[in-house]
Specification:
This protein is mainly beta and 125 residues long. It has 1 helix and 5 strands, in the order αβββββ.
Length: 125
């Protein structure tokens, strides 16, 4: 009985100390922001290889999602006028989180915000 109390208290302490705890209750296919290779058969205005430089909150949009500042490494299709763009990212899997240094090919369309920032609206693989 004593061990059950200890385990219960330990679980409570672990849960209470986790400020941003999340749980995945079902298996889902792994999805990512990046394609490994240039996709074929997707109609998109922009395809580019990018590297995420920073991830966090932003005021470029009213949506409550994380944004990444991404360096444009190579433009494969379309035009991107700036060396850095914003990409709205959501937690896509129960596993790895995208962060600075993550890189790959993104596909989507560009949206210019009122303050002049450019956001790539991604098509997910």
């Amino acid at each position: 009985m004593r061990s059950l109390r200890v385990i219960t208290l330990a679980m409570f302490a672990a849960c209470a100390s986790a400020a941003n705890a999340e749980a995945c209750f079902m298996l889902s296919p792994v999805r990512s922001l990046f394609f490994n290779e240039t996709p074929v058969g997707i109609d998109a205005a922009v395809i580019a290889r990018v590297t995420l430089m920073a991830v966090g909150k932003s005021n470029i949009s009213d949506e409550p999602i994380q944004y990444a500042v991404a360096r444009v490494d190579r433009i494969i299709k379309g035009e991107i006028e700036r060396p850095f763009i914003w990409i709205g990212i959501r937690r896509l899997t129960c596993g790895d989180w995208l962060g600075p240094g993550s890189n790959g090919i993104v596909v989507g369309s560009l949206l210019r915000h009122a303050q002049g920032s450019i956001e790539l609206m991604p098509v997910l693989p």
